[in-house]
Amino acid sequence: MAFKTITVDVDDHVCLIRLNRPDALNALNTAMLRELAQAVDEAERNERVRCLVLAGSEKAFAAGADVKEMSEKSFVDVFTEDLFGREAHALERCRKPIIAAVAGYALGGGCELAMMCDFIIAADTAKFGQPEINLGVVAGLGGTQRLTRFVGKSKAMEMHLTGRFMDAEEAERSGLVSRVVPAKKLMEEVMTAAQKITEKSAVAVMAVKESVNRSYETTLSEGVLHERRLFQAMFATEDQAEGMGAFVDKREAQFRDR
Ligand code: DAK
C-alpha cells in the first residue's frame, strides 16, 4: 500500500522505513504512527524481511509527537483514543530486529521511538531529548522508563526535568546509542549492520532479541535461566549443527532458519 507520511523499501532482506514529514521535522502525528505500525506489521509478516531499519532525515529522526495535533485534544480524547498506545505496541511486539538510524533531532516521542528499537546507531549530528516538560506534560511513550534504564537515574531525571538535549557523543558515552558515525556515513553503516544480521540464523536472532529484552522484565537469576534454556533449545535446530560444523570444517556457515 502507498503510505503518505513514511516511505518503505525492502531490499536484500532489509526493510528500510523512513519517517517522511520533512516540513514538520518528522513530528509524529496519528497518521504517521498508524502507517508506521502497519509497515512494521507488514515487515514482520514478510518472509523476505530479516531486519528492519527505522530512519528519519538528515535534520531530524523525529522532533517529537506532533504538538499542533496534540494541542487540540482533551483528557477524554487522549484517554479514550489511548493516544499512540496501539501503534507503539506494533514496534514493541515485533520479533524481528529493528535498528534506529538517528541523525539530527530525536526529541520527545522521537527519542522514545528510537529507544523502542533494538539498538540505535547515531550520526554525529544527533540530539536526543525529552523536552515534554516545556509543554507542561510528561513523556508518554516510555521515555521516563526506557531513558532511565539506558542512561541511569541522574541523567534521565535531568533531561526530563530540564528538557536539556544530549548530543551524540554524550549519548554514546552514556550508553543510549551503540555507536556514533559521521553523518554522511550513517545509512551505509546502519545498512551494513542490518546486512550482517540478515546473514545469521533467523532463529538465533529471534532468540537473542527475546533474551536481551527479557533482562528488562525479570530478575537476574530468572533471566539467566531463561537464556540458558534458549541456548539449550538452539541445539534442536539445524542451524546450530550447521554453525558449529562450519566452524570445525573452517568454512562459511549456510544457515537455513531451521
Ligand atoms: N510538533 C509539530 N511541529 C513541529 C514539531 C513538533 N514536535 N517540531 C517541529 N515542528 C515544526 C515547527 O513547528 C516548524 O513548522 P512551521 O512553523 O515551519 O510550520 C517546523 O517543524 C520546523 O521547526 P522549527 O522552525 O522550530 O525548526 P528549528 O530548527 O528552529 O528548531 C526544534 C528545531 C526541534 C528545536 C524545534 O522545532 C522544537 O523545539 N520542536 C519541538 C520539540 C518538542 O517539544 N518535542 C516534544 C514534543 S511532545 C504519548 C506518546 C507520545 C508523547 C506523548 C504522549 N502517549 C502514548 C500518551 C510525546 C510527546 C512529545 O513528543
TrEMBL record:
InterPro entries: ClpP/crotonase-like_dom_sf, Enoyl-CoA_hyd/isom_CS, Enoyl-CoA_hydra/iso, Enoyl-CoA_hydra_C. The keyword Transcription regulation does not apply. GO terms for biological process: fatty acid beta-oxidation. Transmembrane segments: none annotated. It catalyses: a (3S)-3-hydroxyacyl-CoA = a (2E)-enoyl-CoA + H2O; a 4-saturated-(3S)-3-hydroxyacyl-CoA = a (3E)-enoyl-CoA + H2O. Keywords: Fatty acid metabolism, Lipid metabolism, Lyase. GO terms for molecular function: enoyl-CoA hydratase activity. Could possibly oxidize fatty acids using specific components. NCBIfam families: PRK05862.1. This is enoyl-CoA hydratase. The lineage of its organism: Bacteria, Pseudomonadati, Pseudomonadota, Alphaproteobacteria, Rhodobacterales.
